[in-house]
Amino acid sequence: MAIAAWRLAQRWCPSFPVVQLHMNRAAMTASQKDFENAMNQVKLLKKDPGNEVKLKLYALYKQATEGPCNMPKPGVFDLINKAKWDAWNTLGSLPKETARQNYVDLVSSLSSSLESSSQVEPGTDRKSTGYETLMVTSEGGITKITLNRPAKKNAINVEMYHEIMRALKAASKDDSSITVLTGNGDYYSSGNDLTNFTDIPPGGVEEKAKNSAILLREFVGCFIDFPKPLIAVVNGPAVGISVTILGLFDVVYASDRATFHTPFSHLGQSPEGCSSYTFLKIMGPAKATEMLVFGKKLTAGEACAQGLVTAVFPDSTFQKEVWTRLKAFAKLPPNAMRISKEVIRNREKEKLHAVNAEECSVLQERWLSDECMNAVVNFLSRKSKL
Ligand SMILES: CCCCCC/C=C/C(=O)SCCNC(=O)CCNC(=O)[C@H](O)C(C)(C)COP(=O)(O)OP(=O)(O)OC[C@H]1O[C@@H](n2cnc3c(N)ncnc32)[C@H](O)[C@@H]1OP(=O)(O)O
Question: Coiled-coil stretches, from where to where (predicted)?
Answer without folding.
Answer: none
